[in-house]
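Dear colleagues,

As part of the handover before I leave the project, I'm documenting each prediction I ran so the next person doesn't have to rerun anything. This entry is a single chain, and its sequence is reproduced below.
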Amino acid sequence: MRWWCVAVDEPWSWTPRPYLGVWALCLTVLGGYAITALRRRGTGSGPSTRQVVWFLLGVGSVWVASDWPVGSLGAGYLAAVHMLQYMLYTLAAAPLLLLGMPEWMLEGVLRRTRLRGVVQVLSRPVVAGVLFNAVLIATHAPVTVDTLRTTQLGNFALDMIWLASGFLLWLPVVSPIREFRARSAGARIVYLFCAAALIPMIPGGFVAFSPQPLYATYELAPRLSPEGPSALGDQQFAGVLMKVGNVPIIWAVMAVIWFRWYESEQRVSLRRRMERSLVGATAPASGPSARPGNDDAARTGSDPSGRVRTGAAD
């Protein structure tokens, strides 16, 4: 039994072939999360139900991207599924795992690994955006794909690099540690648009519009069926996925950020108006017109001392 997916020369079969390494990794991560959460729950500060759900979905995304059939197809049969794996790691698994981690849990991981200072620097939007796209280009270069896809260790390294680059992409947006996030909603929106929606279109265009297959791994792979896509057609679809496949996710996240920012600004504006109205309502009570005797003096034509005004001369 193979422990991780790898490119092979065997004809494709729909017979299930689970990979021991994938299951071991996912169960280890889940076990570590559960033990840490249970220890902390005794103090009343364990992860919330929503965070647990996010984390389970994140681990599930890693399992789907790595195990049969997606992992097998992406490792050595279809470039389009290879690209789907990349998107599952970077756009699904990484942000979901971050959303599922309380601040104290991520702080504990960084403290034990002594990586907090490094991660704080790498999570700056410009640095994170540049490195994320550098990894995107480097790991989709033909020489990288054709080299790493041929061994189990290389294929495992490629998958984990993609997952790490996903963490890097999302730290300025959804990091549990507030100081790692971009300072404003506008900055997060601009960062996501540039780093995850705009720049990936450039390498995606090269892959989609290449006149010949770029990857020997997928060009020489056994076809799934005689009616299936050619190597070039498969590669073109992979390029389209790189160009626009991330658009629904990125734009949906940007919309959520914008609406939350708008609601927050509306609440702040409403609170300020209420404070001003309260100040305006209480101000007359402390002014001169509120002193006892003023209203009576005005009605009787006398001054506050009790003398009756008889005319202008008086």
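The two ends are 114 Å apart (CA to CA). Confidence is low (pLDDT under 50) at residues 293-314.

All the best with the project,
I.
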